[in-house]
Amino acid sequence: MKIYTMRQGSDNWNSAITFFHTVMYHGEAILPTNRRGCASHDIREKKYSPMKIICNGYQLAQVFIPICSANLIVSEQVAERLLKVSSTYKLVPVKFDKVYRLPWSLSGTIKTEAWANKLIEQGKELSILENSKHDPLLATQIRKYYEVVTYNHYRLLEEHPSTHQLFTQFYDSPPLPHDLLPVSREIFHEYPITNAGFPVVRNDVFTILEQFADLRFFGMTVLSL
């Protein structure tokens, strides 16, 4: 069995991916202060408030992880495929609070607008989200998207003690303690997606995601169990 960790690509091994590309691809989740940087919902919660997202509708990805969030967002097409794998996660509709249009390309063949380039040079890529105007027509063209709500990984470990330690990121230097994720083989037999501050997905789920996602924009590691 293989499992994969998936994160936004700002810490990607791919040197061609800058923070600007991450912002353009993943967008940003508008979350309460106590939720920023963690799973915006846990499956054990009784009520779910739709995640609010700011995104670039020019090239909206079918699979992404908004900045400030730790949950996967998937299109309706991907959601339908995921539902066939397991019923141990929920798919909660998201709300696109702001959709703007800013043409861009990873190859640089599309020139970014001058005002955006100035913010990039200043290291203020997130300000692009604030300064871009909402495009209501473009927003109406976006089909349904869903947040994949899963079980908290660490709570599941109370029932399924860890059998392995997963290095969540690769470094030239030895990993730090907080980069080690305890993993239980039994968890992933029963729960193909968990959330440990980032989605951890089983191979069959990953196989679906990679058909729709541009994996260059994700930071990932893989472990064989």
Structure characteristics:
26% strand; single chain; alpha+beta; 8 helices
What does this structure look like?
With 225 residues, the protein is an alpha+beta fold. It has one domain (2-224). Helix content is 24%, strand content 26%. The chain has a five-stranded mixed beta sheet with strand order 9-12-13-1-14. It has a four-stranded antiparallel beta sheet with strand order 4-5-8-6. The chain has a three-stranded mixed beta sheet with strand order 2-3-7. Strand 4 and strand 5 (73-75) form a beta hairpin. The radius of gyration is 18 Å and the shape is globular. The mean pLDDT is 89.
Q: What is shown here, in short?
A:
24% of the residues lie in helices and 26% in strands.
Strand fraction band?
25-35%
Structural class: alpha+beta
Tell me the helix content.
10-25%
Name the overall outline. globular
Largest sheet: 5 strands, mixed
As residue ranges, the low-confidence spans are none
Per DSSP E runs of 2 or more residues, the count of β-strands stands at 14
Mean pLDDT: 89
Please give the count of helices: 8
Separation, N- and C-terminal Cα atoms: 5 Å
What order do the SSEs take from the amino end to the carboxyl end, as H and E?
EHEEEEHEEHHHEEHEEHEEHE
Radius of gyration: 18 Å
What oligomerization state is this entry in? single chain
Number of domains: 1
Main sheet: strand order: 9-12-13-1-14
